TrEMBL record:
Transmembrane region(s): 80-102
Protein name: glucan 1,3-beta-glucosidase
A Pfam match: Cellulase
One Gene Ontology term of the molecular function aspect: glucan exo-1,3-beta-glucosidase activity
């Protein structure tokens, strides 16, 4: 039974072994510009070698091939608040100016304007010049530092930013995409998006600098640790410098000008807080999330906020924060405690994004990126997903709440068809990659229909039977010929240099990575492959928008994964609508998808689940108690140098539902806990604090913003 029911009159993993060694790569250029402006804020295993691809023989081709291909053995809580970026895979957008983070007890509903305006200028503030607030192709846009550039959008879009009305949602990305203050008709209006993030694959230079450091720098845990020790080289401040110089406002302009209408924004849990010895940079990432929201609002782009890394790791892969320490979320002796902490972070993010100032921009929320169901368990994953849904809907209600995106966990897509009947606005996230599967010597031009054959029918089936589906990640990669794609210094299967498992060499990677010498024929082959993917997936987020140069070669070494590089050099379509219909009319889908009633029966999904893998009954496991002060996330608005608004605006207090008074899950006083990344094989410690009555949440003062 579909819970996000399609409107009437519709006219479709292989198991992931415990692969400790998988790591996916870096995502941001070392020398590009990334968030320099200021903010005002308050104090089956895929087998590409087959000649033919049936839409059903690999009915749910997903990112599970990550786990299928690689297998190798792995070679106390003090709230600090606000962290950096997601391990090896998350680099978000940011803001610059201090932000005051509060701990909340009681919250108040936030206000703010969300109306549009027909005016193109705003009166001068404090004797300043008349400031343009909106415009179309050829108009002048003022950046936060006061400089200007010419807005270029061949698709009828227009920008909007009024310092006197900073939460105005009047911008429109393209003529065919509803403005932010209009309704996007899911199922009819396609999601055409890109990810902004990933440290390793996107920003190899950050890791190349520490190639000779011991222990090896392979994820954000080790990167942040190495930077802290490198005070002479810039120390941990290098992370923020990267944020400032990687993605800028111009990127958001360019994304809209490329015909795209959505951004998937991966963020780590340390954008909310860090505890004990966690080395991640605090008090930085959220600033850049706020800047991303401001820029997206200005150019009419919607955001899918993606919780990419959580305590203990949901994958054991680098992009979950820490590599090769096991998947300790809902698995092993710390599985319950880590899950409790993760659910708190989901609640905190939901409270922020549902405020009226932000909910027209952040319209989708991926509550957990890529949980590995083979490690966690199907029943456990469904129970967690249902509890995350319940928590978000407690904040938002069922009327206009954010779309809740649930990653399929490397299961068959159809396994989710009957999940949580009648749930309101749920979408299943899946990541159909080809690059990590069997490596074969076939160019893009020989594989242009492969995405259609593998995915188109299954996606249409799921849209019909379940409701909204979104490909949260995909790329043009047809093999693993990319720097750090498999992990830092892990090599490549295709050329036989892969470190964890020696595999036969297929050939040289040069023809796949030497993009300055790509022929027009090769570029056209990549473009055809990209359009096949776009049409087959219907609603998608390309991984990723931008890749940084290697400090060794001086150029991008992961060309198949950079949308912008392909756009600039002719192998991505100038207009993504060119892809519509590429796979044929039989796979078309153009029917509104309606949210369910919200009348959900949670009984089949008990929380906590009846058992935790590799640990047993939750009643015997370490757990937290809800007595902590809850960190609230501050709001902010874009500013323009030299322009001082004449009125004060309400930026929200970070807490949409003032009735939500539960405390933060924290250690029980007097109990000791295992390390959150202790691993699944550790013995479950003796029960502490469970027999006695747990303390109730302590009342705290409303947050001061």
């Amino acid at each position: 039974m579909a819970h996000a029911n399609p409107a009437p009159y519709y006219d479709g993993y292989s198991q992931d072994p415990y692969r400790h060694g998988y790591s996916r790569g870096i995502d941001s250029p070392h020398n590009d510009s990334f968030f320099t402006n200021q903010y005002a804020s308050s104090s089956d295993q895929l087998n590409p070698g087959r000649e033919n691809y049936s839409g059903y023989e690999r009915s749910t081709l997903q990112m599970g091939e990550k786990g299928v291909i690689y297998a190798r053995k792995p070679s106390r809580r003090k709230p600090i608040i606000i962290g950096a970026i997601v391990v090896a895979i998350v680099v978000i957008a940011a803001i610059g100016v201090g932000v005051y983070f509060a701990r909340k007890g009681k919250g108040k509903d936030g206000g703010g304007s969300s109306s549009s305006s027909s005016s193109s200028t705003t009166p001068p503030a404090n004797g300043g010049v008349v400031q343009a607030v909106t415009g179309g192709d050829g108009s002048e846009v003022t950046l936060e530092d006061g400089t200007t550039f010419t807005y270029s959008n061949p698709f009828g879009g227009y920008w909007y930013h009024d310092p006197e009305d900073p939460f105005n949602n009047g911008a429109k990305a393209q003529s065919w995409t509803p403005a932010l203050n209009e309704t996007l008709n899911y199922g009819v209006d396609r999601i055409r998006g890109v990810n902004i993030g990933v440290l390793e694959k996107s920003s190899p230079a950050l890791f190349e600098k520490y190639a000779d450091v011991t222990p090896r720098v392979v994820d954000e845990w080790t990167l942040h640790s190495a930077m802290r020790a490198d005070t002479a080289g810039g120390g941990i401040d290098q992370i923020e410098e990267h944020y400032k110089t990687f993605i800028t406002e111009r990127d958001f302009h360019d994304i809209a000008a490329a015909g795209l209408n959505y951004i998937r924004l991966p963020i780590p849990y340390w954008a909310i807080e860090v505890r004990d010895n966690e080395p991640y940079l605090p008090n930085v990432a959220w600033k850049y999330v706020l800047k991303a929201i401001g820029w997206a609002r200005k150019y009419g782009l919607r955001i899918n906020l993606d919780l990419h890394a959580v305590p203990g790791s949901q994958t054991s892969w680098n992009h979950s924060g820490r590599l090769n320490k096991g998947a300790n979320m809902l698995n092993g002796p710390m599985g319950l405690a880590n899950a409790q902490r993760t659910l708190d972070y989901i609640r905190i993010l939901a409270e922020f994004i549902h405020q009226p100032q932000y909910r027209n921009v952040v319209t989708m929320f991926c509550v957990l990126n890529e949980p590995r169901e083979p490690l966690i368990g199907a029943e456990q994953l469904e129970s967690f997903s249902a509890e995350a849904y319940r928590i978000v809907r407690e904040v938002t209600g069922n009327e206009d709440g954010v779309w809740i995106s649930i990653h399929e966990g490397f299961r068959n897509w159809g396994d989710w068809d009957d999940f949580l009947p009648n749930a309101h606005r749920v979408t299943i996230d899946y990541h159909p990659y080809i690059a990590f599967g069997d490596q074969i010597d076939k160019d893009w031009s020989e594989r242009t229909k492969q995405p259609c054959d593998m995915w188109a029918q299954n996606v249409k089936d799921r849209l019909t039977k379940f409701g909204l589906m979104n490909a949260g990640e995909f790329s043009n990669g047809i093999n693993d010929c990319s720097l750090y794609l498999n992990g830092v210094e892990e090599g490549v299967q295709y050329d036989g240099t892969y470190v964890p498992n020696k595999v036969p060499r297929v050939g040289s990677c040069d023809k796949y990575t030497d993009w300055p010498n790509f022929t027009e024929e090769r570029k056209e082959g990549i473009k055809q492959f990209a359009m096949a993917s776009m049409d087959a997936l219907h609603n998608y987020f390309f991984w990723t928008w931008k890749i940084g140069n290697s400090s060794v070669s001086g150029k991008v070494e992961t060309p198949a994964w950079s949308y912008k590089l392909g756009l600039d050099n002719g192998w991505m379509p100038k207009d993504p609508r060119e892809a519509d219909g590429f796979c044929g009319d039989a796979f078309s889908f153009n029917t509104p998808i309606q949210g369910g009633s919200g009348d959900v029966n949670y009984a089949p999904y008990p929380w906590p689940p009846t058992s935790i893998k590799n640990a047993g009954s939750p009643s015997t496991m370490p757990r937290y108690t809800p007595t902590g002060a809850v960190p609230t996330l501050p709001g902010g608005t874009l500013t323009i140098s030299g322009v001082k608004p004449t009125k004060t605006v309400d930026i929200g207090n970070g807490w949409a539902n003032s009735n939500d008074q539960a405390g933060l899950m924290v250690p029980i006083e007097g109990c000791t806990y295992l390390d959150p990344w202790v691993g699944e094989s550790a013995a479950v410690p003796p029960v502490c604090g469970v027999a006695r009555r747990e303390a109730q949440p302590r009342p705290t003062q409303p947050p001061v913003l």
